[in-house]
Request: fold
Amino acid sequence: MAAKQPPPLMKKHSQTDLVSRLKTRKILGVGGEDDDGEISQVLGNEIKFAVREPLGLRVWQFASAVLFSGIAIMALAFPDQLYDAVFDGAQVTSKTPIRLYGGALLSISLIMWNALYTAEKVIIRWTLLTEACYFGVQFLVVTATLAETGLVSLGILLLLASRLLFVAISVYYYYQVGRKPKKV
Reply:
């Protein structure tokens, strides 16, 4: 039985075929648009070389990572003291929930430390959104606990005020990082 012959190869002029050239450039990652609509000419690189960051962003990321790490270590190692500092002398019935809280904070702090060293807008924005959600939920939980127990102290009021401030800062940077830069 005779094998079928493949059709003769046609020479394609990819330099003149615009569609083929655009498809090839897209596959290679050359000439694609980044987040800002700019065209990247570096092979496989979607990140612009000069990313303009809002003033103080890296300081805020560093402060957040230190804050999350410090509270996580305190919750893991000294749960009684952490509870006492926040709720002003109330007795701890179980250390397990506070230590679980410390473990969760330690996990979030690892994400914060890694985000400190990236230049990708998407990762920075997600970590800022994570922070804002965390501080917002913590504000709501502490407020609900206050309503149930009726314990009001200076420590709790400072905690609530700081959480609102941290939500505001995180949301501010979240929107600043996502903003399109002005064309020069």
User: Anything to note?
Assistant: The chain has a mean pLDDT of 81. The chain has six helices and no strands. The two ends are 70 Å apart (CA to CA).
